[in-house]
Amino acid sequence: MLRRDFLKYVAIGSAALMLGCSAKTPNVTPTPTPTTTSTLSQYKSTFVLGYGKDHKLNGGKWGIGFFPKIHVLERLVEYDLKNDTYLPCLAKKWEVEQNGKVITFELAKGVKFSDGSDFDANAVKFTVDWLKLNHPLGSETFDSVEIIDPNTVTIHYKDDGFFNLAKMAEFHMSIMSPKSVEPEGNPKGKFVLPVGTGQFKVADYKESQYAIYEPNPYWYERFRIKPKFKRFVVNFIFDDDTRVMALESGQVNAISDYVHGGSAYTPRNLIPQLEKMGYEVFKRVIPLTWIIAFNYEREPFNDVRMREAVDLAIDRNEVVKIFDNQVLPARTLFIESAPGIKEAGVVYECDPEKAKELVDEVGFKGTVEMIVDKAQSDQILVAQLIQQKLKGIGINVKLDVLESGAYKQRRDSGKYDLRMYYIGGTDRRFYLRMYWRFYPGCKWCAYVSDKTGELCKKILKEFDEKKRKEYLIEFYKAIHEEHGVVPLYFDIMTVVASKNVVADGYHLFHYPNGIPFGEPLFYDVGVRT
Amino acid sequence: MKRYIAKRTLQAIPTLLGVSFLSFILLHLFPGDPAEMILTIISGSEPSYAEIQRFRRQMGFDKPLIVQYLHWLSNAVRGNFGTSWTEGKPVMDLIMQRFPASAELFFTTFAISLVFAAVLGILSAIYKDRAIDHFCRIFSLLGISIPSFWLGLVLIWIFSVKLHLLPAFGYGNGDLKHLILPVVTWSFSFMAIKTRFVRSCLLEALSQDYIVTARAKGLRERIIVLRHALRNALIPIVTYFSLSIHHLIIGSIMVEVVFSWPGLGSLLVESVFKRDFPVVQALVFLSGALFIVVNLIVDLLYAVIDPRIRYGD
């Protein structure tokens, strides 16, 4: 036998053996690791994504958009919703003093910005100072920042509490290089382009048209993986249908929902069709719950019985049918993996008979006004369903579908009875939205009572995970007892990819070190040649 | 003629001032305190009473409205419309960034529509109640009835998804391929009503006594239509076409949204949604001013089109 034949048989035999072994392996979940053996020749040099919003890269009111905050920058800490813990990212560890009024972060060593400069305490100080001057969340959060040594920084917050740590995982608290502004390092300077330690660096940006990113070699080296493209083009395609057709035409390789959640998403009704057509759909349920919010300070919804009646009248299974069952019915305040939800055991039921009895008991006979934002076309359909369901229990609803500006005006002036709203967000926003929606005195509140307000305060103060969970459970129960809001459905985050896109659901929603992300990530995506 | 030009120019000034005042007053007509509204948008949070008072003084909102207007106007005539509340950039920079795309889309659509509307309208009038007239009328009716966004999506489906011939979206940095679908979509509705207008104007002219005389003289039909009837029908046609000029600033919002075309129409929509009043004020003012200027030019063109008009010289 020739040596070549021998090697051929050995190779065939080994392959057969491996196949046989793998077939027998009983349901072992392999530890997902990004592909490290791939070569660029297998993949196209460019990956093109269709995205529904222009994620600003050159400043603006709140700095840059959410997309570059996730893909270009990193944060000191990251949040794991399932375990309700904060995990190291740019900070290796941290020490909390004065119940969170002071937090000292020990920074990871050897991390570089995409321009090759070192990440250090100076960059953290610059970011905190910049946020204090330029960002509402920064100005209300930070008091001062001091550099202890090149790898240690102490942040003094305006208030104490666990919320300070929670905020550090928030989009807006992403760390950027002092070179992001001109003159370099001046927090009052002009914002030029974000320079970060994250997956990508900005190569080009045309407002309202596209952004082009390139892999940040230092980030890929840090996680020991190889990028599968040289350029990552994000095309801004504002119309939902056009975005889907751009995917079908092959002009883009994938389309993704707005990373913030809740808007500019792939129409849910098209997802089953796209799946049938062979497109791969990656979904992740996020703790963003669409709700009915009441004007609970005026009649008739200042009466808890009326709020309960609305709650009981809604069949959530019918609500999700509007979205072709792609979203999940919200029978709890947040998704199951949110902290304390399972333990609270609070379930929102549908019982129209009981709802009718409650309305009769109150003796309500009038009409209520529900305002809907025209820009959220899906919400108009949901509002129409709500109108129909409430009519069934004796509440007439007058729907006012308003242009966004007029909607905000009506909302802010309090001239409405019902409105559609959302609580929660992507994972990292869980506690921030708890603050924005349920904390007493907040502009964007969904519901506040003495009891829920107090509990919200306690939740955001408490560092101890166990105690915090207890408060959360109490909070969920109180919101349910008071029928403060009516949860309708849980939103999802989707990425729809063409057949030639190499991607997996794990890496699209996890950082290479295993930290779960609510927002889709594209560092391990490739397009087959 | 010179006196007429001077008179018309002077007449345009009060209209221009009216437009500028309406643009300026937009901010004050919107419910709520402008100072509070601006601060809320800029800071993203609810400002305190003291902050509002301080900001009111700083912005000059405590001064009489007429003083504020004159200050705004003096800046506006120098091209300074202030800074965008949401972008933090000069409004004029934002407008100039989007203007090339808007101009490209508008002038191409305008030129194509002009040619097609004129040709179809003339053919329709000449061959009244014959097959070609029926075709033109059905074409116009479809153009008027079909919404631009729907037509745009159908064209994307045919030419991008099915035939892979043209891009589905985007400006493409001057690549003409990107211009085709938005122009076709917009032109379809743009030319439809104009085709009908050319037809009706020409039909009216063709029914005049001087046309009967021309025919009795034995002139050729081509000369009768083009030299006698069309020239007399031109005044309403030119006026009507000129009224479209405001689209240069306002754009076709639906077409820009469907094709992700980075023009001024989409800027206007975004600014309205974000309540970015300086941008809205500037676009409304510029659109109105352009409209007035073009009307003035058209008025002066009448003398060229119709030699009988001599404006009292």
Outline:
The complex is a heterodimer of chains A (529) and B (313). Chain A is α+β, with helices and mostly antiparallel strands and 529 residues long. Helices cover 33% and strands 23% of the residues of chain A.
Please tell me about this protein's structure.
The complex is a heterodimer of chains A (529) and B (313). Chain A has 529 residues and is α+β, with helices and mostly antiparallel strands. Chain A has 18 helices and 21 strands. Chain B has 313 residues and is mainly α. In chain B, 76% of the residues lie in helices and 0% in strands. In chain B, helix 1 (2-29) packs antiparallel against helix 14 (277-305), helix 9 packs antiparallel against helix 10 (221-242) and helix 10 packs antiparallel against helix 14.
Quote the average pLDDT of chain B: 85
Low-confidence stretches of chain A: 1-33, 35-39
- Rounded to the nearest angstrom, the distance between the terminal CA atoms of chain A is 38 Å
Query: Order of SSEs of chain B, N→C?
Result: HHHHHHHHHHHHHH
Work out the helix count of chain A.
18
Q: Strand share of the residues of chain B?
A: under 5%
Helical residue percent band of chain A: 25-40%
- What is the count of β-strands of chain B? 0
Shape field of chain A: globular
The coarse overall form of chain B would be: flat
Question: Helicity level of chain B, as a percent range?
Answer: over 70%
| Biggest beta sheet attributes of chain A | 11 strands, mixed
* Tally of DSSP helical segments of chain B: 14
Please give the radius of gyration of chain B in angstroms: 24 Å
